């Protein structure tokens, strides 16, 4: 956020809604007991969503291209690891069609839209961490 000059959190939330940035759901991961199969499928769907966004953001934020690429690789590795866990535990994997996750930001919205997607991704990764910890107990 320091690299960009954006408004208040309220303004950012309004812009996020205006741009149609997808919210990712992992409600199955918060159930007690954890429904691991549904949880993993929701995580996979979310990772796929953000993977699509990151491909687009990589082209927009050329100054940060190396960092975005690193995040893309981390997401890909996490997705592969979750898929492997699902296979090892004989869980059914739901394969979602490749979504068109390329946001349609106009020129002035590109940086702020990218920033908002990256903020959402960070929150999603925190939720995944908590969900996996919850499901492992």
UniProtKB/TrEMBL annotation:
SUPFAM superfamilies: 4-helical cytokines. One of its GO terms (biological process) is immune response. Coiled coil: none annotated. The keyword Secreted applies. GO terms for molecular function: cytokine activity; granulocyte colony-stimulating factor receptor binding; growth factor activity. Its main location: secreted. This is Interleukin-6. It comes from Micrurus lemniscatus lemniscatus.
């Amino acid at each position: 956020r320091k690299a960009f000059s954006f408004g208040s959190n309220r303004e950012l939330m309004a812009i996020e809604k205006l741009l149609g940035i997808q919210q990712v759901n992992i409600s199955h991961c918060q159930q007690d007991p954890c429904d691991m199969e549904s949880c993993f499928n929701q995580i996979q769907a979310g990772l796929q969503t953000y993977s699509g966004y990151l491909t687009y953001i990589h082209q927009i934020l050329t100054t940060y291209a190396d960092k975005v690429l690193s995040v893309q690789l981390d997401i890909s590795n996490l997705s592969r690891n979750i898929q492997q866990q699902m296979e090892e535990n004989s869980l059914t994997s739901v394969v979602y069609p490749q979504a068109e996750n390329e946001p349609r930001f106009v020129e002035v919205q590109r940086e702020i839209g990218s920033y908002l997607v990256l903020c959402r991704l960070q929150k999603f990764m925190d939720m995944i961490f908590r969900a996996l910890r919850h499901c492992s107990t």
